[in-house]
């Protein structure tokens, strides 16, 4: 297969390099990623300033790679339109940190894959749980699972407008219980606003958030805590058809 790889952590991120190194063993790969980290950029695109493209050389990788001054969605769009042809699949990741529950709305990783799905390319978003107090995680296992799931999808589940959102728990391979196909859950946060000094702006804050506790449910958040790799098919059509029928009966 010819695979376009993107991410939101940047062209030099360990996760994207590990993914590309694994996939080039059996596939033709091109890497197109943001020049700098663009985490939590959601599905934003660049409209009012030029986007620059630079060919890059990634250590230990013998494939074409480009950095883009824009967003993750820009990377996919430019990759498909300008930098390669006849792509079979778009894969976004491996993201540093999980993209579970309603956090997929904020995720640049998921949005890059969704941009591909909008234009009818099969796509995968893959993320790995990490210990945020450290910065030494190994993405080898996540890359191997990505290749494994891709092989299954290639034979049985290549749907052109569906994103397979995959999350890998931060556990040893021997502790992984398997792959669980499940819906996304709901994630909410308690936000902390720390006031900082910025000249000319008296009300300036640094924002952080802690995920709120919630009841256990049969969703991606609960299953990853139990040691499962989670897989959720996502689609860009956000219509709730039950609510659509209710609204139809009221407003029409």
TrEMBL record:
A GO cellular component annotation in the UniProt record: cytoplasm
Co-factor binding details: Binds 1 divalent metal cation per subunit.
EC number: 3.1.3.5
Domain Survival protein SurE-like phosphatase/nucleotidase, first and last residues per copy: 3-190
Residues where a divalent metal cation binds: 8-9, 39, 95
InterPro entries listed in its UniProt record: SurE, SurE-like_Pase/nucleotidase, SurE-like_sf
Cofactor(s), by name: a divalent metal cation; Mg(2+)
Family classification: Belongs to the SurE nucleotidase family.
NCBIfam families, alphabetized: PRK13933.1, surE
Physiological role: Nucleotidase that shows phosphatase activity on nucleoside 5'-monophosphates.
This protein's name: 5'-nucleotidase SurE
Gene source species: Clostridium cadaveris
